[in-house]
Amino acid sequence: MAGIIRCRGVCKIFDSRRGSVPALQDVNLEIAAGEFVTIVGASGCGKSTLLRLIAGLETVTSGEIEAVGARVHGPGAERAMVFQNYSLYPWLTVMGNIKFPRQLSVHNRDSTSSDVEAASGRADALLQLMGLSAVETAFPAQLSGGMQQRVAIARALMTRPRVLLMDEPFGALDAQTREVMHDLILHVCALEKCSVVFVTHDVEEAIYLGHRVVLMAPQPGRVECVYNVPLGSTRDQEMKHTREFLHLKGQILARIRDTCGVRTDLELLQKLSRA
Amino acid sequence: MSGGRGWVIRGWISPASYWTLAVVGLVLPVAAWLLVSSSGAINPVFLPGPSAVVHRVAAWFDDGDLLSDIRISFFRVLAGWALSAVIAMPLGLLIGTFRRIQALLEPLTDFIRYMPAVAFIPLVMLWVGIDESAKVAIIFIGTFFQMVLMVAEDVRRVPMAQIEAAQTMGATRAEVIEKVIIPSAKPALLDTLRITMGWAWTYLVVAELVAANSGLGYAIVKAQRFLQTDKIFAGIILIGLIGLAMDQFFRWAHRAAFPWLHGRN
After folding, report:
1. pTM (2 decimals)?
2. Looking at the domain assignment, is residue B19 inside a domain?
3. Three-state secondary structure along A205-269?
4. Is B165 on the interface with A (CB under 8 A)?
5. Residues of A whose CB is below 8 A from B263
6. A265 and A150 assigned to the same domain
7. What is the value of ipTM here, to two decimals?
């Protein structure tokens, strides 16, 4: 399988007034076409930075990132991104948001009337697929958080991106809504055959969704290790209680604890409780 | 407990009680004014009664000056404010969008906005003359620099996620500005226009200090010379009423133009 995203020796240093902060150090990662890769790690490990570099929203300090056969120099329509929140356009209806990419010149170059028709058909199909038909004419402010994220995903998929980048897209949702969204996103991405890079801080989410789980560690941000998820390509909620699942979850959580730099000092705790 | 419900922090009250309280809030000071002035404790030169003010307004109207005074003041305020808006909107958009332009212009604007508009009168007379454009220029100086900074702030408040989402959908820089930043900032921009319109009215009296012979501000200044306290009151109250009407108009326009902000259900 050819890598649809390749990161080679990626370093990122943020310059601030108090000096430069190394956010990522020598990250090497290859993601195959059609693959669903999740990235987890303690806060400050640079997982969101890596995603933003792939999206082209930040530039690498050194190293290079290649996506869909070309070096990344900035954002591009073949790499759609879904944000945690506040990315919908509140002045547009649900349908208006989903069709927003059609307003952009990249998606309208020499488009014929049949293209316009096809796009309109795709918008309708995405609306149904994401279960949004009933709220087509509603404004985002009238929707629940889960529904808003469905609109954001439908909008990102509108232009058939090769890669879908998701930055903690379900982080602001409650646990039940999140489970529904998990099955929905797996279903939709299998149907659309797009590759997904999914950043989360929830290990269970990372295992349930990913073909592979990339574990990153902080100070400096780096890829610590990569786990293959020993579950088939079709997932269901029952799998979360299997031995393989729980074993991997325990393994990853232990590794994150090791890398987060906080030690539980029992002696110190006893001193504190005595005082 | 029902007595305490109206005092819930940021709590809800019914439209009926809202309007009742609003009317009470407006009527109470007028009633107090009526009471104090009719008691005879204060010389009407210092505090004329409401009826004296109403009579003064009627006489002003009968002279035929009132409507032309309102018309000319309205024109001056509107012209100075609109001129500010036409320049401040694009300039503020650029300041709020590009850091280079912000660095170039924002400290300068901050510096100028602290200069008192009144102090510019001699310069305006020297540069612009003493005709209508001088009055418009004073109102412009009073509102423009504040307006630029407020527009820039409105533009900066557009959530970064909205901008970045458009970029990852393939939007060009011009498309991000046209299709995301401007529509996203529009409600805040209309509020900025509403607020600066209020400031433009407060600069009217200052503007009509410059060789004016008509207008509400001029009428107040002239009444001061003749110690016509009732006419001063009449002028001030008229300006307040016009401002209130304009404000309500802007609020209505906000609801009409941005249904997604108001049509919660």
Report:
1. 0.86
2. no
3. HHHHHCCEEEEEECCCCEEEEEEECCCCCCCCHHHHHCHHHHHHHHHHHHHHHHHCCCCCCHHHH
4. yes
5. 139, 142
6. no
7. 0.87
